[in-house]
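Minutes, methods subgroup
Present: GH (chair), OT, SY

1. OT presented the first of two proteins processed in the latest run. Sequence and structure tokens recorded below as shown on screen.
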Amino acid sequence: MDILSQLIGTGDNWTSWLFFLVFWGIFFFFYPRLMLTQIMWKIERTAEELEAMADETKKFMVLQVSKNPDKKLRDSVANFFEFFTITPVSLDPYGIVKKFELVIQNEKERFHYFVNQVAPDADPERKANIEMGFAGGIEMYTIAKIIRHYVELIKETKSYQIALIIQMQLPLIEKIAKAVYEGTKSLARGEPVGDGLGPLVIATLMGDKKSEEIEEDIIMTEVAIDGRKCFVMKARGPGGRLGRPGKAVEKIMKKHKIARIITIDAAAKLEGEKTGSIAEGVGVAMGGPGVERSYIEDIAVRTSTPLDSVIVKMKSEEAILPMKKEIKDAVPLAIDRIKEALKRTKKGESVIIVGVGNTSGVGNNAKAAKEAAKWVDDFDRKTKREKKSKKRLPF
């Protein structure tokens, strides 16, 4: 009481006391509402931007299917953007890989079926690119729906806590959404993306030799590298595909005695690390739900085969964006690391080398790899010119 009296005057000054209580009462009552209004304005604006991006992505994919779309096509694409996949029950982990495999294969079949329905005359590579575009478009649409859900939930509940949590996540959400938005367009056009690093390395190693498809969307070529017999494989390009590298490795290992398995893939870097930097390790460098990685690990355990991995680091969003020059320039360095790994095997032994990743824009031989690399260089120069021109604008 003495402290309060000193702050607002004498204890007999009831007018000051009343002002003090009313002021703080109003402050504590209205301040959270003011903060909620301010936060909601930012979240609402972000939700509208994401919805606009999702709508633009939808329109873009419609035009990728047909230059003169009718209402039936637009409705079909809009309905397909609601497509979802339910992950299998994992309470009992036994058999979970087979469950995931079934769901993933069913998902692929649905994408194949839909694209064949809306674009029956497109060639196989174009259909593969459209499928990848739809996968990105659905993800963009889902992000926009989730943010809109929380906007409406906050409006309904007036929850300051939920609004604060979403606000703290917005910078990351916006970053991911912009990458998905741009990446969807790149994949639909069949342009090389950051995740195509692994296939680009393998295409370079393939030279001009003819390859064969040994598993679903996986091609393989047998080449000699430093006296070792190497089975090099990647997803079939240049359409956007991932293939089934795990099943392909399993098939080769059942026919040949393999001394080592080497996987090359793009990997998420930490902030502060350079895009295009390389690291080596052991294990299977392969993202995704883990089905294909499980096949490789299982057969490697049964045959006691060493597993080596080479990764090229990049931001998560850089994996789906057009390939950067720094990533392309890492290809010869990755090949050098592969050759170092081969030294841990004896001459004459057989090795499997797998280029993991999306082969969008990357063909199936060294010539196609050079064409992809040239595209990356041209895109890099174009991007730099655009940045310079923007800096010169007086407004």
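2. SY then presented the second protein from the same run.
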Amino acid sequence: MASWLNGKRTSPIGVDIGSRSVKLLQLGGDGSTVHEAARWDLPSDSPDKPTERDAHVIEAVRRAREGRKFRGRDAVFCLGAEDLFVQNIRVPTADGAELDKLVRAEAAGRLPFKSDEAEIRYIEAADVRQGDTFRREVILLACHKPALERILAVAAAASLRPVAIDVEPAALLRCYARQFRRDDDHQRRVMFVNLGAARTKVVIARGSDAMFVKYVDAGGRHLDEAVAKHLDMSLDDAAALRRHNGDRRADQRDPEIARSIAEAVRGVLDRLANELSLCLRYFSVTFRGQHVAQTVLGGGEASEALAEWLAARLDVPCELGNPLRTFEKNALSGPQTQWDVAAGLALRNAN
């Protein structure tokens, strides 16, 4: 497919379908500006049945485009955690067709669906020592083919033309890798943490090369549930209280409410920190002598306070991500961190 930089005025629309909202972002033709972006929230009581949920997603995509300046119908969609099987695996060292055969054979015994019904991709991380031999560390990425068919159906119903279907971890890394300017940046090991509504995405990378990927079952919804239980209120009221408190400046927050929320969510955040610690430990043991130099926190639930807290808990410097830092006209409403996946999708095929 020809690059959209060659004579095109805009990029494809990056369509980030989350559990709580749909975010659309389109770049200018040279990839240096945000041409348009929009977010549309999904119903808080979104149904569990895929067909009913897809109907809400289709409506959200349509409403997000209404009255906006999005150009064309080309779009890049992505597979989320509910449709994507991710696991770091090890196979004998090999290349080309032989490596592909080994990965698929290993995947067959791990996938939650039949391998002949799966689309399988993988990322080669590095050769690692296991005992007295070396093996190839590989990030396995697979999905059930019906999940792809559902995305194509959603795109068609929303009058969009999917030019690619990506995965969230790749989009996340692509977004931040764009900001690497120095040679040192391409060699540093960084852990990217995207704290979303339902789950947290974790990608440890050397420069723009992913070396470890994992989904952690902790997100904004878990924080809301913890507040609802602690304060004996409905889930919707708990979500509204937590967001209202978070939207205020620290010096304008009610101390009693802030204290109650902090007490309520402590268990969820402790669990998240423990999971991230395990990710760092796996990385340091697997890739001996390599250590993560920094954590970048993104996603709709990210905050400066949480970045500071994680830095202290993990003993690794942590900064709040700014996925739109290198783009012009990036004053979008809401937390800038929520646009990292959508921006990464829009950047696909940029080179």
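Chair's summary of item 2: The longest helix spans residues 255-286.
Next meeting: continue with the remaining queue.
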